[in-house]
């Protein structure tokens, strides 16, 4: 069998070697509970402090604005459930971490409004401006996981603030992949997850702007300024900081490299006369490629690529009777036959031109 080609980097990424090695140290050697007062805990405590400073620097925040969580899903849930606003404005293309948290708060009486998106997946700022009421929470993602579209967060946050409302962005697909500067964006909350930027699974963070109030989601000890209880996962936090710093320091280079691979893939498909539709906006996360093939089933494309040693995702999933089309493809108005035949190829910095050639060859074999 051919070498495995991993082209599902929007689902998760391979961990950085340096992050992995640091993680081992804090599991096997400096394994103390960072909250303990004895000297053996000093290395863990210092590492925690340094990791918080590093992460803050990568997104231009202050260290006291970074709160460690267990994942992007927890960060998202914390904002939706912890803000206690009577009204929430979110979008139709959010990740289920937001959508399902919104369903829960709606059961408790919160009014949830779902903003439409245009055919490229953008919430038009003027549409939000036209409906938003005061003292609400707006939660709109920075980059969509299925189609890669980057949303105009700076303008949307400005509109939220002009209506005396709070603004959260789920930046799980953005952090470590495109420049993210919380001061420039002027957001109140921002969610991130380490495993999307070559850090470990099961660790993430929430940026909370200094002075913004939120209730804890998890109660217990006094960790994270009494806002997120639970013994700190020092090993994973340290590894997350290393991975983020590595990616942030090579951001332009990585973006250019991955965009080059994406351009080559599209060019090769076109030159082979393969018919496809590319979903999403022009301004998007490099390497996140949503392709629809009319008359095909995304699920069977995924399995046939799998047989050829290639991992991708699909935009539609079959249960025993029906094909469920993704809410994102529905929201951007992709016709059903196209939506059914959608796959997401998400290239990362580990992919090569040879990987692209093999993906194209495989697609040509399957769809021609
Ligand atoms: N938000 C977005 C946009 C995502 O893509 C994901 C994961 O795919 C999440 C949230 C959830 O992150 P995690 O897997 O860390 O819980």
Question: What would your notes on this structure say?
Answer:
The protein has 368 residues and is α/β, with parallel strands linked by helices. It has two domains: 127 residues, Aspartate Aminotransferase, domain 1, CATH 3.90.1150; 233 residues, Aspartate Aminotransferase, domain 2 (3-Layer(aba) Sandwich). It is built from 14 helices and 15 strands. Strands 2-8-7-6-5-3-4 form a seven-stranded mixed beta sheet, sandwiched between helices. The protein has a four-stranded antiparallel beta sheet with strand order 9-10-15-12. The model has no long low-confidence stretch (mean pLDDT 96). The structure holds pyridoxal-5'-phosphate.
Provide the gyration radius in Å.
Answer: 21 Å
Number of helices: 14
- CATH homologous superfamily label of the largest domain: Type I PLP-dependent aspartate aminotransferase-like (Major domain)
CATH class of the largest domain: Alpha Beta
Side by side, the strands of the main sheet go 2-8-7-6-5-3-4
On the 0 to 100 scale, the average pLDDT is 96
Q: Count all strands and give the number.
A: 15
> What hetero molecules are bound to the protein chains?
pyridoxal-5'-phosphate
Main beta sheet: 7 strands, mixed
Describe this structure in a few short sentences.
With 368 residues, the protein is of the alpha/beta class.
Topology:
Blueprint: E1 5-6, H1 17-28, H2 42-58, E2 66-69, H3 72-82, E3 87-91, H4 96-107, E4 111-115, H5 125-131, E5 137-139, H6 153-162, E6 166-170, H7 182-185, E7 189-193, E8 204-208, H8 223-226, H9 234-249, H10 251-271, E9 277-279, E10 288-292, H11 298-307, E11 310-311, E12 313-314, E13 316-318, E14 323-325, H12 327-331, H13 336-340, E15 342-346, H14 353-367
Parallel strand pairs: 1-11, 3-4, 3-5, 5-6, 6-7
Antiparallel strand pairs: 2-8, 7-8, 9-10, 10-15, 12-15, 13-14
The structure holds pyridoxal-5'-phosphate (PLP).
Pyridoxal-5'-phosphate binds at residues 71-73, 76, 95, 97, 141, 145, 170, 172-173, 193, 204.
């Amino acid at each position: 069998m051919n070498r495995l080609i991993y082209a599902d980097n929007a689902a998760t990424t391979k961990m950085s070697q340096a992050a992995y090695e640091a993680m081992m140290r804090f599991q096997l050697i400096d394994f103390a509970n960072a909250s303990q007062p004895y000297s053996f805990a000093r290395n863990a405590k210092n590492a925690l402090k340094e990791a918080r400073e590093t992460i803050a620097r990568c997104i231009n925040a202050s260290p006291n604005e970074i709160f460690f969580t267990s994942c992007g899903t927890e960060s998202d849930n914390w904002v939706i459930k912890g803000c206690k606003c009577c009204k929430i404005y979110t979008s139709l293309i959010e990740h289920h971490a937001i959508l399902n948290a919104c369903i829960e708060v709606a059961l408790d009486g919160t009014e949830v409004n779902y903003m439409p998106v245009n055919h490229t997946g953008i919430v038009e700022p003027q549409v939000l401006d036209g409906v938003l009421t005061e003292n609400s929470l707006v939660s709109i993602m920075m980059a969509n996981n299925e189609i890669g579209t980057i949303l105009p967060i700076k303008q949307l946050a400005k509109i939220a603030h002009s209506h005396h409302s709070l603004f959260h962005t789920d930046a799980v697909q953005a952090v470590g992949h495109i420049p993210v500067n919380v001061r420039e964006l002027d957001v109140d909350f921002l969610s991130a997850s380490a495993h999307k930027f070559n850090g470990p699974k099961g660790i993430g963070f929430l940026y909370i702007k200094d002075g913004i109030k939120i209730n804890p989601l998890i109660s217990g000890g006094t960790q994270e300024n009494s806002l997120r209880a639970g013994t700190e996962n020092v090993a994973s936090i340290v590894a997350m900081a290393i991975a983020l710093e590595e990616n942030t320091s090579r951001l332009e280079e990585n973006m250019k490299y991955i965009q080059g691979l994406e351009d080559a893939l599209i060019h090769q498909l076109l030159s082979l006369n393969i018919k496809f539709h590319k979903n999403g906006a022009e301004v998007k996360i490099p390497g996140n490629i949503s392709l629809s093939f009319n008359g095909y089933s995304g699920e069977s494309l995924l399995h046939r690529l799998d047989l050829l040693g290639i991992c991708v995702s699909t935009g539609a999933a079959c249960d025993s009777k029906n094909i469920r089309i993704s809410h994102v493809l529905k929201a951007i108005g992709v016709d059903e036959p196209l939506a059914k035949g959608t796959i997401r190829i998400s290239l990362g910095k580990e992919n090569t031109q040879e990987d692209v050639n093999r993906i194209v060859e495989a697609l040509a074999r399957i769809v021609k």
